[in-house]
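G.,

No rush on this.
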Amino acid sequence: MENSLFRTMTEQLAYDGQPAQLFELTNVSGVRIVLMDIGATWLSCRLPLACGELREVLLGVGTMADFERQPSYMGVTVGRYANRIANGLFTLDGQSYQLSVNQAGNCLHGGISGFDKRRWQVVEQQTNTIIFGLSSADGDQGFPGNLDVQLRYQLHDDGRFDIEYIAHCDKATPINLTNHAYFNLNGTESELDARSHQLQIEADYYLPTNENGIPLDDLVSVQGTGFDFRRVKSVAQDLLADEQQQAAKGYDHSYWFDPQRDTSVPVATLTSQDQQVSLSVITDKPAMQLYCGNWLAGTQARAGKEYADYAGLALETQFLPDSPNHPQWPQSGVILRPGEEYRYQTTFQFSRSR
């Protein structure tokens, strides 16, 4: 089935005066995933259901103009550092660095011109795999060192969709790459939004933040709070039940996973209200940001429509926010050094009722 995005996303030129390149990955069961070189973006994810429906489960835009305007990072690859760095400042090896700031005086998702706004190069393309590459120069958005990144998207016949990140540098630098896809497993055209999903997160701790998403101090137990998703519950059940949520208009917080866990076991499972589609998240990253689209209202959708708040939710596997300023946290890999390799993978496993 033809995807109109190949036409509508290329009718207008991208920031560099050239049209975007779009690519579709398919598998034997008919899953169709569309990717774009601008932002190494995951644009679309359509799942064939037993009833004959081809369900779009990924929020996204329909034109390049809307992509460049939208402030919500839908489906893009964010870096060098996903999430926030307080005041855009950190000290590394005795030297202070000032990053570009783009959210309440902080550096969000890599700064004003992060990886989400770049044209990535196509390194390799096959029916079910594409590899993008990007080079980030020393001083890019204030970050030290030249950084070379490769990003591999691979769709498997069993419904697994892998995203693997590999990077090398010539000078020590913070790095935290993730994809910012928003899911609505009910279907993006459904009247049901993120709040109707059933969600489970295998995490005992979350990270409280101030009103701008900057960590307050340290991890806190989810026990007795609305942040407890250790047993399956609807997103709506405890939405806005905590002061932390009320300041953010909902869930926009990082969950910390047990460092001793089996990284082949899902850390999160999301299910549509009609039970037709479920999504499991498997990752070797130590944390995940749950963001329920609390501020999506007014963001352009496909076909000239607009999204409302909570239209979809993001499950962003990553390091904890502001980690360069919290070396005491029990995670390694935040600082990449010459001779080391940054290599992490997240798998989104889609399952459909038969």
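When you get to it, here's the other one too:
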Amino acid sequence: MLSDSYLMWSRLAPTLFWFTIGILLCLTELFFAKNLARNYKLVPLITGINSIILSIFLFRTYYVPDWNWQITYWMGLSAISVIWLRPMLLKTKKSNIRDATEAKTIADILPGKTGKVLYEGTIWQARCNDKTIAIASDQTVFVLEREGNTLIVAPENLFHF
């Protein structure tokens, strides 16, 4: 017959292990988030939370599964969470620009290259939406969208018939 202290330790050891791993993974995300490549953002946090969930499950259950099953549960839950939750949490922010906002070119925009425009009192890099068109300086253009710090513009003469 096994002693009560052995039974308690056999339940508590995996719980403490998974809880510690979970805390360490969450701290990894906290301290190294800026150094992680975009492909790995939130992965340590999600897997750490899953470790903590597994530790709670192991603490609450009477029967502690074998070590191989614990790893399988954790890996399965983590893989599903990373595949399903992570894209929802990493939604890219798209900035909306009002339709047909005007800007004025202050430097030529050559075909497929970037130039400069004056937009709302600020100088921006700009690129023509049609990569075959050149836009001369001191022309009015319409801002169609923004990609990072570059405005996508179209010449005003495209809109006059």
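Helices lie at 4-32, 43-60, 67-89. The chain has three helices and five strands.

Enjoy the weekend,
O.
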